[in-house]
Design a protein that fits this description.
By secondary structure, this protein is of the alpha/beta class. It folds into two domains: 176 residues, 3-Layer(aba) Sandwich (Isopropylmalate Dehydrogenase); 144 residues, Isopropylmalate Dehydrogenase (3-Layer(aba) Sandwich). Helices cover 33% and strands 17% of the residues. It contains ten helices and twelve strands. A hairpin with an 8-residue loop joins β6 and β7. The radius of gyration is 20 Å and the shape is globular. It starts with a strand and ends with a helix. The relative contact order is 0.18. Bound molecules: 1,4-dihydronicotinamide adenine dinucleotide (NAI) and ligand LD2JLWAY. The site of the ligand NCC(=O)COP(=O)(O)O has 6 residues, from α4. InterPro entries: PdxA (IPR037510), PdxA_fam (IPR005255). It catalyses: 4-(phosphooxy)-L-threonine + NAD(+) = 3-amino-2-oxopropyl phosphate + CO2 + NADH. Catalyzes the NAD(P)-dependent oxidation of 4-(phosphooxy)-L-threonine (HTP) into 2-amino-3-oxo-4-(phosphooxy)butyric acid which spontaneously decarboxylates to form 3-amino-2-oxopropyl phosphate (AHAP). Keywords: Cobalt, Cytoplasm, Magnesium, Metal-binding, NAD, NADP, Oxidoreductase, Pyridoxine biosynthesis, Zinc.
Length: 321
């Protein structure tokens, strides 16, 4: 897929606007979609009308999307919530029409969108799946600067912990495994992916003495998928599957719930972690962090995860070009 990467503005009161500028010069050509009033003062920029219009060297190409209000760092304005949502839809429309190579999204604040515009999705992942035609997707977070790599997929995502055991059905886990397996081949160029599946309970249930989900749902599923030829380890005790020698034995880990997956990667590679949505008909990456209201506008935002997300989007797009 050719053309620029589209970088959506995310929450204007977060660190997104400054990251859009700090990433300039990272070697990836991208166009930012948002309201130019939200960019840091003095940002070298050129407004464009189509994603691949030329701009002077060192300028941020801006696809202008007017919001209801200006923005104050650290203080989301409910009036801007609909603009944040619409920018994501705008980017999806462009990439689905083949006018851009991929999307990289800057962070949104889910609470601000819910309160300001009754946003009904828990995050980008679910909203993008909806915009793409309600396709099944999974969220992967992939390290870019640790070895062996840490790639994790939470099978359940943004739900209360109390709801996880019921939500972690055999069907859901199977879908996460199949989507991850296909994406490791297509997007990561790993021809024979090795997947590891975490147990839900301590010690992966320890033979049913610490929980029955492994014996009743996970083990029968893994046996069936192995018989199809998928290379699957598990269910593994989650506490011992993320240190380096353990990670060397698999290419991606399917985890039971959000924090089981995200704590290891954000601990190992917060600056280099990339969130990538697998299963979409287009490429979407994102930094692994959120809106960071506590430091927005202070000059302390680290752009490394955004740069890693842009680079990963570019690499994936080039693989399918
Ligand atoms: N893809 C997305 O749109 C994501 C959005 N979020 C949203 O962000 C909001 C805030 O979430 P939190 O849990 O507070 O996580 P957060 O990632 O925004 O902040 C956690 C801590 O990390 C620091 N931090 C984050 N990114 C940083 C960066 N680039 N440079 C330096 N320090 C950085 C923050 O200052 C804060 O102390 C929530 O609404 C959450 O839903 C969270 C993760 C991803
Ligand atoms: N904790 C990860 C996260 O919130 C990312 O969500 P999404 O907006 O990429 O779906």
């Amino acid at each position: 897929m050719t053309g620029r990467i589209l970088l959506t503005c995310g929450e204007p009161a977060g660190i997104g606007p400054e990251l859009a500028v700090l990433a300039l010069g990272c070697g990836v050509d991208y166009a930012w979609i948002g309201d130019p009033r939200h960019l840091p003062a003095g940002t070298p920029r050129t407004e464009i009308t189509a994603p691949n219009d030329p701009v002077p060297h060192g300028h941020l190409p801006v696809l202008r999307h007017d919001f209801a209000a200006s923005s104050t760092a650290g203080h989301p304005d409910p009036a801007n919530a609909q603009g944040v949502i619409d920018v994501i839809a705008h980017a999806v429309d462009l990439v689905m029409r083949g006018e851009a190579a991929a999307i990289t999204t800057l962070p949104i604040n889910k609470q601000a969108l819910k309160e300001g515009a009754s946003f009904r999705f828990p995050g980008h992942t679910e909203y993008l799946a909806h915009l793409a035609g309600d396709v099944p997707v999974v969220m992967m977070l992939a390290s870019t600067s640790v070895s062996p790599p840490c790639r994790v997929v939470p099978a359940t995502i943004h739900i209360p912990l109390a709801d996880v055991p019921a939500a972690l059905t055999s069907d859901l886990l199977e879908q996460a495994i199949r989507i991850t397996h296909a994406a490791m081949i297509r997007d990561f160029g790993i021809n024979a992916p090795r997947l590891a599946v975490a147990g839900l309970n301590p010690h992966a249930g320890e033979g049913g003495t610490m929980g029955r989900e492994e014996a009743e749902r996970i083990i029968p599923l893994l046996e069936r998928l192995r018989s199809e030829g998928i290379d699957l380890a598990g269910p593994l005790p989650a506490d011992t599957m993320f240190h380096a020698p353990a990670r060397a034995r698999y290419d991606a880990a399917i985890c039971a719930y959000h924090d089981q997956a995200l704590i290891p990667i954000k601990t190992l590679d917060f600056a280099g972690g990339v969130n990538v949505t697998l299963g979409l008909p287009f490429i979407r990456t994102s930094p692994d962090h959120g809106t960071a209201f506590d430091i927005a506008g202070t000059g302390r935002a680290d752009p490394d995860s955004t740069i890693a997300a842009l680079r990963m989007a570019r690499e994936m797009a080039d693989k399918t070009a």
